[in-house]
Amino acid sequence: MSDRELILARIRAAVTSAPPNEIVRDYRTSAGPLDRAELIELFAERVADYRAVVHVTGEDEVAATIAAALAAQGLTRPLVPGGLPVEWVPEGAVADDPPLSDAELDAVGGVVTGCAVAIAETGTIVLDAGPGQGRRALTLLPDYHLCVVRAGQIVAGVPQGVAVLDPSRPLTWISGPSATSDIELNRVEGVHGPRTLEVVVVR
């Protein structure tokens, strides 16, 4: 018998005579009745709280907003994943086809993607490597990430977000730019992901 099997056998023996306990799972599954405009406003507010740059714009202004944001960063050859809507692809964009090496991704100034879902209550964006999002490395190695979020992709809370995601896919949960703090609470950004996150919300 292995150590693992021995430990599990002892646990089973110890709880054999224990009475069954009912586990109550009455978790809150809603952030309240929010309409579409309220969801957009709450999401934009929470994303901004994470020191991300947020733009709320109309469908016909997305391309111009992306171009202006990239120009402000001085990015002329941003990376774009396959499946990104053609009208969102900026001039001079670099495709990840064939897949770029880690060194090439690290040298790219920034990336433009879509997302799978966005959560208003926590200001979180979730990517699942679907169309317009690309593989996980695309949004971890470049120093700048611009993510376009459609209003219909915004849900109120985490339970609603989890409900529409496929747990078998590689999920990347993003709440603001990459940041960490040491024991003295000195904040350092860009340690394990983009130093700058910019979000374009399409009404």
Automatic annotation (TrEMBL):
Residue intervals passing through the bilayer: none
Pfam families in the record: LUD_dom
Ranges for domain LUD: 112-202
Organism: Streptosporangium saharense
PANTHER family named in the record: LACTATE UTILIZATION PROTEIN C
Protein name listed in UniProt: L-lactate dehydrogenase complex protein LldG
Residue ranges of coiled coil: none
